[in-house]
Amino acid sequence: GRGIPSGSSFRSTGFAVAGKNIALTDSNFQVTVFNTETSDLTTVSLDDVRLASIPVGAREAGHMQADGQYVVTINEETEVADGFIIKVIDVTSGLPSVIPFTNNPTSAAEQIQMVSVNAETGLVVAASSTSFFVYDINDPTAVPTEFPADANGIGDAQIAFDGNHSIYQDDSGQPNTKILATATGAITT
Fold first, then answer.
1. CA dist., res. 63 & res. 29, Å (int)
2. What is the pLDDT of residues 17-51, one digit of tens each?
3. How far is residue 19's CA from residue 90's CA, in Å, rounded to a whole number?
4. Which of 2, 13, 134, 179 has minimal CB crowding within 10 Å?
5. Is residue 136 within 8 Å of 143, Cβ to Cβ?
6. What are φ and ψ of residue 175, in 5° steps?
7. Partners of 169 in beta bridges
8. Is 11 in contact with 26 (CB distance < 8 Å)?
9. Dihedral over alpha carbons 45, 51, 56, 61 (to 10 degrees)
């Protein structure tokens, strides 16, 4: 094992691993990408990515999520220069670049509970308490496909996403595990 330069300035409950890179958060809601091969730290400008929240617990929903070379984030629309809520940090070329989704799923970042990304399909899922929004990394200006949850809504356990299905818990008294087919919107308990 080895340390990360300035590692004490990052939150131990706010990071995501994207291939050979680690996206880290600090107490200013800023993301820094650490390349484990070169040991370079690259801070992403707060004008581009400013996290909407930093959940306290490591297993809480709302953290940035990573898969492959992508890290998806929920951004405070009033703090980033372009006003876009859902963004992906792409580290495929080594240095991080930001892909903003130009159609916000809701009017405020606080309405989005969690996000997840799948590198193989290039899809991103954002979830409010009542709907899922599916984005395509290869078409970031497209309107997301919205799929409403059933009457029990979406609970606050972090969703899992395999690129074709999003697994989640509903918001009923005794939560049920459910699967959303992201191509059709069909929900299975």
1. 11
2. 999 999 999 999 999 999 999 999 999 999 999 99
3. 11
4. 2
5. no
6. -55, 140
7. 177
8. yes
9. -140
